[in-house]
Amino acid sequence: MKVEPGAIIGGILLGNTWGTMLLRCLAFAFIFSTSVALMAQAPAAQPAAKQTTDATQPPITKIIKKTQLVYVPVVVNDKHGRHIGGLGKDLFDVEQDGKAQTIAVFEEIQHSDAVSRAKATFPAGSGYVENYSSSNKDASKLMIVILDTLNTPFLRQIEARNQLLDFLGRSLQVETPVSLMVLTSNGLRQVHPFTSDTRVLMEAVKKVSSQSNIAEMADADLERAIGDPKALNADNEADFLITTFSTAQFDRFVQMDAARTTIRALEQLAGAYQGIAGRKTVVWATGGFPFMFADPQSLNGLGPDFLDDYNRAFDLLNNANMAIYAVDVNGLFVNSLVSPTQANATPGGQASGAPINMRIPRSIAGAPSGGLARGAPRYDLAQQKQDALRAFADATGGKVFLNSNDFTKAFEAAAEDGSAYYVVGYYLKGNDKPGWHKLKVKVNTPHADVRAREGFLVPSPKNETPQSHLVQLGVATLSPADYTGVHFGVQIEKSIAEPAVETAGAAAQSTPVAMRSQPFHLAFPVGVLGVDADQNNLVSLDVLAVAFTKNRTDKDAGERVRGVRAHLKPEALAEFQKSGLGLEERIDLPPGEYDLRIAVRDNVSGNLGSVRTHIVVQ
Questions:
Q1: H or E segment and range at residue 536
Q2: Residues near 21 by beta carbon (within 8 Å), at least 6 away in sequence
């Protein structure tokens, strides 16, 4: 299926009503494309020929949903922060939603010192471009650093960068692979892939420039409004609320956009490193996250689209085994909103003569827009940001570092933490209701500091729609690094001339454009794709190809969506497990030079992979 250039990607970037309507229209077309693909593609699917064979490759994964495993990495340290090793399975207790679970999988993980790229699946000279595949199947000690310029004040960005340089120069352990990312108003950007060369990393950090951002200005506007003495006068509370929150709507939208960009960046980060084994330490040097939540269910009032983004990101973070170590680079925190009269108030009440507390508007607190939520806490933007960072760290099993001007120590602590850990797993049997499930892990040993992620998400089947799959694929094509959840290769073939088509505009003024059909071959090695044995050996894929022009505008020049769904008979399954899968695809483009990005979703496992390659259409 071919769609109009910019339709999917434009809708994802807009994130608004028009984008949603566009995706709904595409979803209808996508359903049609999927059914056609089932009839036309499944019988003609080609084996993933031209790939090298490897006797050590794992057998094809058969997903049986009734026996889905939940894996929980558990860090167990002593009071000095050192790993407590040699603990037995019988010392661990796991609870889901307050109910004890039977541990079926238990292992103590010791990190290897480095990670290296696997031997190329496709032979040299074959023309295949493939995404990352790790040669080390054991857990590796990996550190990913995000310098957040989107949510961080300008001057604090400079200080964070300087202290990161200090950490890399003095404290980074030898052979620890580090990947450097930067988060800007345009999204996530990879500054340097994994390397243990501190000199190279330091040069990469020096190239990261600070930026003034509109979110910082929005913070300042809101803080000035909150700090206005007139606003704390009970007689003027109604006028204050009307004036402040009416004029602050733009600022709130700015913060909302920053929050959405941040969530999407974390989603892309998880997708990029999902295919690498082991627990990943993500050091997020940031000025904070503008909204507070403890789990997905507490985001009421922020809109269903944001909730979907948040759920999707946390699902990917957990699947990718990522732990967030949030470093608040704002430094020492002083709650400037507490007045002397409030500071002397008795617990549970308000001091005599104290000004009335400012409350969160109902649009934020989850109540209908237009008034105050009764009993809502006083709105403190700085505190809210810190609480949000705590929530990220707790939900992923990481740590949060607050109220300190020594960021170097925070970087050191994050790098040291989780060098070794345990993995416990249990089966979801009858407790797999869609939604957010809370986890609690206890270790029965004295003086143990236990840390594990506090929950996981079971996606709702209602949310598994062609539209939601398109959104995931679109986010993957915009990622600065290839997604690694599905390993595959892309081979570009010679383009074919197509009939000329008219460009947009009045027919009399339009100029015919000589289009080309650009074929490409997708090859999936053995053991990569899932087969659902419960649904008659179902193989189900979604494919999105997007071509971007190679210039500063990075314009979307063409898109193609494809769905493949087939039930493999025994003989086809045997061939599939022997040779993998190959698919012939195409995208229609005018002559030119393009950055072709192809994303694939394995609908059986829910994993995603993406590959970027350069093409010249003649």
A1: none
A2: none
Same domain assignment for residues 471 and 601: yes
Q: Please answer whether residues 336 and 383 qualify as being in contact, where contact means their C-beta atoms are separated by less than 8 angstroms.
A: no
Which tens digit of pLDDT belongs to each residue from 574-602? Answer: 999 999 999 999 999 988 899 999 999 99
Q: How far is CA 12 from each of CA 9, 32, 256, 472, rounded to the nearest angstrom? A: 5, 21, 15, 9
Contact 134, 275 (CB under 8 A): yes
Is residue 550 in a domain? Answer: yes
Are residue 226 and residue 177 in the same domain, yes or no?
A: yes
Same domain, 481 and 531: yes
Same-domain status, 183 and 214:
yes
Half-sphere exposure of 615 (CA within 13 A, CB side): 36
Distance between CA atoms of 574 and 569, rounded to whole angstroms?
9
Tell me, what's the pLDDT at 358?
A: 26
pTM over 0.85: no
The pLDDT value recorded for residue 193 is 87
Distance of alpha carbon 182 from alpha carbon 190, whole angstroms: 6
Q: Give the range of the structural domain holding residue 320, as residue numbers without chain letter.
A: 142-333+380-417
Are residue 349 and residue 389 in the same domain, yes or no? no
The total domain count for the chain is 3
For residues 541, 546, 547, 553, the Cα torsion angle rounded to the nearest 10 degrees is -160
Whether residue 312 is found in the same domain as residue 170? yes
CB 398 within 8 A of CB 286: no
DSSP symbols for 483-502 = -BSS--EEEE---EE---EE
Residue 289 counted as domain residue? yes
User: 172 and 269 in one domain?
Assistant: yes
Domain assignment of residue 68, yes or no: no
DSSP string, 68-133: -EEEEEEEEE-TTS-B-----GGGEEEEETTEEE---EEEEEE-BS---BPPPSS-TTS-EEE---
DSSP string over 286-304: ES--SS--SSGGG-TTS-H
Q: What are phi and psi of 309, to 5 degrees?
A: -60, -45
**Interval 176-218: pLDDT, tens:** 788 999 999 889 999 998 888 889 999 999 999 888 766 566 5
Whether 88 maps to a domain, the answer reads no
370, 386: one domain: no
What pLDDT, in 10s, does the model give residues 524-581? 999 899 999 889 999 999 999 999 987 645 677 889 999 999 999 999 999 999 999 9
How buried is residue 75: exposed, middle or buried, by Cβ count under 10 Å (0-12/13-18/19+)? buried
Taking residue 11's Cβ as centre, other Cβ atoms within 10 Å add up to 23
For 271, list phi and psi in degrees, rounded to 5.
Answer: -65, -35
